[in-house]
């Protein structure tokens, strides 16, 4: 009965068009009413406590770093550098998009920000070169979701806070899987364009490569600063977010001189708006998470999945399938906030490494950003690239299947995540 009320209140409010944050509050209030413990003070207190977290300060700064990166010329220089390396091979612009996405992922941590930048910079070039419009848009969409996986990652910050798992360990554990997803896109793109007769760009000379590298050096140094700083404990993930934002601002205004002071207010406002949405979701989800614990829902679910606790791989497979289904209808942040307090007791009972689970859980949720009908990244690429939603959806399928294949490979072979994570974190 408790589970029915939880799901009924949440899904019913969403079906009525109530925003997800308010649906979460309504869900928590419904559970409190059902358990005869409704108290507005408890509701308000849990809402405030949900956002009162030092690690969550990383969210606004990473969002700001992404905004500055796109407006200050860092993204463009990364794309230009990738162009000089692989732009001359068959299907070269696709490989440029994948390389640029991996590098940019280590700057912003936001799939939507990377999708907007890649669609604005590369999609017109790919269209003029004669690439299939739907396939190109699909590739850039799939490449953009590497951003929540390679550090710094806003998804890892939210999950780390919700699950009480080390964000630094999550960051380090996300590096190898992010690169693997990029490799899967690389192979898929190679297979799809191997017979296309598109004239590639001329091979860049060594001098042009060095010039592009020199121009992009300050942009490429940022991920090194963040990763090295986290690995050796120079700063926490929250401090890394501040470093990233300040560094991006300094490079954009002082070195590249492409960002004017008059533009800062707009960038701060955009980052603040996105942050406000995420923080309110986190705050509202805390009410539901608290009620889920009080109502003992995780214990009920553990009892249901008891036969799978001794078979962790099969249990992970079932959890990933459930997350896939939820991800088709819900955005990344609310999915993390709703499912994390439900799944974590099961993961602990089965003896599964929480960091390993967190990586696969975030990968699954990231791919959910490109799964129709609710695909935030698909909408972003369609809007920025002036492509119809149907075309983007059609083009993304082969890349989405490849990324899901990599994710389930990690489910059946956990060492693909655990071994590199131990090396990176030391």
UniProtKB/TrEMBL annotation:
It is found in: Cell inner membrane. Residues 8-416 form the TRAP C4-dicarboxylate transport system permease DctM subunit domain. The chain crosses the membrane at residues 6-33, 54-72, 92-125, 137-159, 171-192, 213-234, 240-259, 271-293, 313-343, 355-375, 395-419. The keyword NAD does not apply. Keywords: Cell inner membrane, Cell membrane, Membrane, Transmembrane, Transmembrane helix, Transport. One of its GO terms (cellular component) is plasma membrane. GO terms for molecular function: transmembrane transporter activity. InterPro entries: DctM, TRAP_DctM. It is a multi-pass membrane protein. NCBIfam families: dctM (TIGR00786). The complex comprises the extracytoplasmic solute receptor protein and the two transmembrane proteins. Part of the tripartite ATP-independent periplasmic (TRAP) transport system. Belongs to the TRAP transporter large permease family. This is TRAP transporter large permease protein. It comes from Pseudacidovorax intermedius.
